[in-house]
Amino acid sequence: MLSSLKLLQPSTVAEASQALAEHGENARIYAGGAELLLLVRHGLVAAEVLIDIKKIDRLHRIQLQDGTLRVGACVTHHALENDPLVREHAPALASAESQLANVRVRSQGTLGGNLAFNDPHSDPGTALLVHNPAVILGGAGGERRVPLSEFFIDMYATALRPGELLVEVEIPRLPVGMNSAYRRLHRYQRPTLGVAAAARAAGGAIEEARLAVGCVGPKAQRLTDLEGKIKGAKLSDARRIVKEERKRLGNLLQPVDDLMGSAEYKLYMTGVMICEALEAANGAAA
Ligand SMILES: Cc1cc2nc3c(=O)[nH]c(=O)nc-3n(C[C@H](O)[C@H](O)[C@H](O)COP(=O)(O)OP(=O)(O)OC[C@H]3O[C@@H](n4cnc5c(N)ncnc54)[C@H](O)[C@@H]3O)c2cc1C
What CATH class does 179-285 carry? Predict the structure, then answer.
C-alpha cells in the first residue's frame, strides 16, 4: 500500500501549499509520519500523494525573536523536550514533551503534526495554551496568524483550510514572575488527562493564573472563568474554589467516557490536578 504512494519533497512553504492545492484531497502533508503512516497502512486515510515537508529548513527552527519563541512545525517532541530555550521560555511545554508517549514517538513525531492532527488525547496543545500562543498557517494566499485557542475546533478538527499547512508556533514570553507547569495522568501511553497552569503569586495569594485542561472532552481548553475566580485567592482557598466549580467545569469540558477512563473520574481528577499544577507553577515562580 505505502509503495504505491507518490512522494513530493518541497523545499519551501509556498511549494508545499502549491502541491496541496494541485493534488487536493488526494494529498496529505507528511511530517514525522508517526500518525499518518499508521492511518494509511490501515486504510483509515486515503492518500495518493504524500507531501514530505521535512526538507523545508524554516520548519526546523527554534528561535527567540523580540521575546517571542518561534518553533517550526517540524521540530520533534524530543528536540523540544531538550532545548534550553524551550525549557526556560515555556517550561510547561518542555515538561509535556518529556512525558509524551515513548522515546520512539518523541523522536519521530513533530509539534506541527501533533497540533494539526488534534487527537483529543494529546499533551503539547494543553501545555501551550497557558502561554497564549498563536500558530502561523501558510497557504496559496500567503500566511495568517491564528491564536491556538481558536485553532482547536473539535476532536481531529482545526482551523486549517484546504491547501494550508501549519508553519510555526509563536510563544510569547510569560509576564515577569510567572512560571508554568504541566501535570499528566496516564494508564497507557496516551494521556488520560493533561493539566497546565501558569501562575504568579505575591504574599501567598495568586496575582494571576492561567489554566488549561486537555483529554477530558473533545479539545484542549483554557479555563478563563475559573482563572478569574481564583485571582487574589490564597492557594488553600483556590483548592476550595476549584472543588466548588466542578459542575461548571463539567459543562465546559464535556467529559466523555472512553478507554482512558470514565467521564466522572476524569472530571474528579481534573480538580485534583489543577491544584497540583497551580502549586507546581507557583513553586517554580516563588
Ligand atoms: C504509539 C503512539 C503514542 C502516542 N502517544 C502520545 C502522547 O502520549 N501524547 C501526545 O500528545 N501524542 C501522542 N501520540 C501522537 C504523536 O505525538 C503524534 O503522532 C505526532 O506528534 C504527530 O506528528 P507527526 O510529525 O508524526 O505527524 P504525521 O503523522 O506526519 O501527521 C499527522 C497528521 O497531521 C498532518 N500534518 C502533519 N504536519 C502538518 C503540518 N505542519 N501542517 C498541516 N498538517 C500537518 C498530516 O497530514 C496528518 O494528517 C502518540 C502516537 C503514537 C503512534
Answer: alpha beta
